[in-house]
Protein backbone atom coordinates (compact mmCIF):
# COMPACT_ATOMS: atom_id res chain seq x y z
CA UNK A 1 0.00 0.00 0.00
CA UNK A 2 1.41 3.39 -0.96
CA UNK A 3 1.64 6.21 1.49
CA UNK A 4 -0.56 9.29 1.21
CA UNK A 5 1.02 12.71 0.73
CA UNK A 6 0.81 15.04 3.71
CA UNK A 7 -1.52 17.44 1.90
CA UNK A 8 -3.90 14.66 0.90
CA UNK A 9 -3.77 13.07 4.36
CA UNK A 10 -4.74 16.36 6.03
CA UNK A 11 -7.55 16.96 3.54
CA UNK A 12 -8.94 13.44 3.91
CA UNK A 13 -8.68 13.49 7.70
CA UNK A 14 -10.39 16.89 8.03
CA UNK A 15 -13.21 16.05 5.64
CA UNK A 16 -13.82 12.62 7.15
CA UNK A 17 -13.76 14.09 10.69
CA UNK A 18 -16.59 16.50 9.87
CA UNK A 19 -18.39 14.23 7.41
CA UNK A 20 -21.53 15.87 6.02
CA UNK A 21 -20.95 18.95 8.20
CA UNK A 22 -17.72 19.85 6.36
CA UNK A 23 -17.73 23.16 4.52
CA UNK A 24 -14.76 24.62 2.68
CA UNK A 25 -13.49 27.57 4.74
CA UNK A 26 -15.18 26.55 7.99
CA UNK A 27 -13.50 27.43 11.29
CA UNK A 28 -12.17 24.71 13.54
CA UNK A 29 -12.28 24.83 17.34
CA UNK A 30 -9.46 23.66 19.57
CA UNK A 31 -11.09 20.32 20.45
CA UNK A 32 -11.77 19.47 16.80
CA UNK A 33 -8.20 20.33 15.83
CA UNK A 34 -6.86 18.16 18.66
CA UNK A 35 -8.97 15.20 17.50
CA UNK A 36 -7.84 15.70 13.89
CA UNK A 37 -4.18 15.83 15.00
CA UNK A 38 -4.66 12.62 16.99
CA UNK A 39 -6.07 10.97 13.88
CA UNK A 40 -3.12 12.24 11.78
CA UNK A 41 -0.63 10.90 14.36
CA UNK A 42 -2.36 7.50 14.34
CA UNK A 43 -2.30 7.46 10.55
CA UNK A 44 1.41 8.34 10.53
CA UNK A 45 2.20 5.67 13.11
CA UNK A 46 0.31 3.14 10.98
CA UNK A 47 2.66 4.07 8.13
CA UNK A 48 0.01 5.72 5.95
CA UNK A 49 1.45 9.25 5.71
CA UNK A 50 4.60 10.08 3.76
CA UNK A 51 7.11 12.09 5.82
CA UNK A 52 10.54 12.55 4.28
CA UNK A 53 12.54 13.33 7.42
CA UNK A 54 12.74 11.82 10.88
CA UNK A 55 10.49 13.64 13.36
CA UNK A 56 11.34 13.81 17.05
CA UNK A 57 7.86 14.85 18.19
CA UNK A 58 5.28 13.59 15.71
CA UNK A 59 2.32 15.26 17.45
CA UNK A 60 3.98 18.70 17.30
CA UNK A 61 4.83 18.11 13.66
CA UNK A 62 1.23 17.13 12.89
CA UNK A 63 -0.12 20.26 14.64
CA UNK A 64 2.04 22.41 12.36
CA UNK A 65 1.10 20.30 9.34
CA UNK A 66 -2.62 20.71 10.05
CA UNK A 67 -2.37 24.46 10.64
CA UNK A 68 -0.27 24.88 7.49
CA UNK A 69 -2.77 23.08 5.28
CA UNK A 70 -5.80 24.75 6.87
CA UNK A 71 -4.19 28.05 5.77
CA UNK A 72 -2.83 27.01 2.38
CA UNK A 73 -4.99 24.23 0.90
CA UNK A 74 -7.74 25.91 -1.13
CA UNK A 75 -9.98 22.89 -0.55
CA UNK A 76 -9.90 23.70 3.18
CA UNK A 77 -9.45 27.48 3.41
CA UNK A 78 -12.48 28.64 1.45
CA UNK A 79 -10.72 28.74 -1.91
CA UNK A 80 -8.37 31.59 -1.04
CA UNK A 81 -4.87 31.65 -2.48
CA UNK A 82 -2.45 31.82 0.45
CA UNK A 83 -0.59 35.09 0.87
CA UNK A 84 2.16 35.36 3.49
CA UNK A 85 1.39 37.96 6.16
CA UNK A 86 4.96 39.21 6.26
CA UNK A 87 6.68 38.23 3.00
CA UNK A 88 10.44 38.36 3.09
CA UNK A 89 10.60 38.34 6.88
CA UNK A 90 12.91 35.32 6.82
CA UNK A 91 15.30 36.92 4.37
CA UNK A 92 18.90 36.53 5.43
CA UNK A 93 18.20 34.02 8.16
CA UNK A 94 20.73 31.55 6.75
CA UNK A 95 23.44 34.16 6.21
CA UNK A 96 25.99 33.87 9.06
CA UNK A 97 26.69 37.63 9.19
CA UNK A 98 23.00 38.51 9.42
CA UNK A 99 22.40 35.81 12.04
CA UNK A 100 25.29 37.07 14.17
CA UNK A 101 24.18 40.69 13.83
CA UNK A 102 20.60 39.83 14.82
CA UNK A 103 21.85 37.89 17.82
CA UNK A 104 24.11 40.76 18.89
CA UNK A 105 21.24 43.21 18.41
CA UNK A 106 19.17 41.33 20.99
CA UNK A 107 21.86 41.91 23.63
CA UNK A 108 21.68 45.71 23.48
CA UNK A 109 19.51 47.70 25.87
CA UNK A 110 16.86 50.00 24.44
CA UNK A 111 18.36 53.30 23.34
CA UNK A 112 21.87 51.87 22.88
CA UNK A 113 23.56 53.85 20.07
CA UNK A 114 24.95 50.64 18.53
CA UNK A 115 21.42 49.45 17.66
CA UNK A 116 21.16 51.85 14.74
CA UNK A 117 24.42 50.62 13.19
CA UNK A 118 23.45 46.97 13.55
CA UNK A 119 19.98 47.58 12.09
CA UNK A 120 21.50 49.48 9.18
CA UNK A 121 24.00 46.66 8.55
CA UNK A 122 21.23 44.03 8.65
CA UNK A 123 19.00 46.03 6.29
CA UNK A 124 21.84 46.60 3.81
CA UNK A 125 22.99 42.99 3.92
CA UNK A 126 19.47 41.58 3.51
CA UNK A 127 18.83 43.96 0.59
CA UNK A 128 22.04 42.83 -1.12
CA UNK A 129 21.13 39.17 -0.56
CA UNK A 130 17.68 39.77 -2.08
CA UNK A 131 19.23 41.63 -5.02
CA UNK A 132 21.75 38.85 -5.66
CA UNK A 133 18.95 36.29 -5.55
CA UNK A 134 16.84 38.32 -7.99
CA UNK A 135 19.57 38.62 -10.63
CA UNK A 136 18.71 36.44 -13.60
CA UNK A 137 20.45 35.77 -16.88
CA UNK A 138 19.37 38.50 -19.29
CA UNK A 139 18.48 37.44 -22.82
CA UNK A 140 20.17 40.35 -24.62
CA UNK A 141 18.79 39.23 -27.99
CA UNK A 142 15.25 39.77 -26.70
CA UNK A 143 15.91 43.40 -25.68
CA UNK A 144 15.33 46.29 -28.10
CA UNK A 145 18.52 48.05 -29.26
CA UNK A 146 17.82 51.21 -27.21
CA UNK A 147 17.66 49.15 -23.98
CA UNK A 148 20.69 46.92 -24.69
CA UNK A 149 23.05 49.87 -24.24
CA UNK A 150 21.51 50.65 -20.84
CA UNK A 151 22.09 47.13 -19.52
CA UNK A 152 25.80 47.20 -20.28
pLDDT < 50 stretches: none
Report the mean per-residue pLDDT as an integer: 88
Helix count equals 6
Percentage of residues in strands = under 5%
Tell me the helix content.
40-55%
Order of helices and strands: HHHHHH
Tell me about the largest β-sheet: none
Distance between the termini: 57 Å
Radius of gyration: 23 Å
What would you say this structure looks like, in words?
The protein is mainly alpha-helical. Among the domains are: 6-72, no CATH class; 96-134. It is built from six helices and no strands. It has helices at 6-18, 30-45, 58-72, 96-105, 114-134, 145-151. Helix 2 (30-45) crosses helix 3 and helix 4 (96-105) runs antiparallel to helix 5. The longest helix is centred in the last third of the chain and has 21 residues, at 114-134. It is extended, with a radius of gyration of 23 Å. The termini are far apart.
What topology emerges from the helices and strands here?
Elements: H1 6-18, H2 30-45, H3 58-72, H4 96-105, H5 114-134, H6 145-151
Helix pairs in contact: 1-2, 2-3, 4-5
List keywords for this structure.
152 residues, mainly alpha
Brief overview, please?
54% of the residues lie in helices and 0% in strands.
Amino acid sequence: MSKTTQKEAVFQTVTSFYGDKFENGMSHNKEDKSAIVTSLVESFEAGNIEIKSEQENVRTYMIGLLNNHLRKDTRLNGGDKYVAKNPGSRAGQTDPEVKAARTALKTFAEGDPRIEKFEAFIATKVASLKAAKAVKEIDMDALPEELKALVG
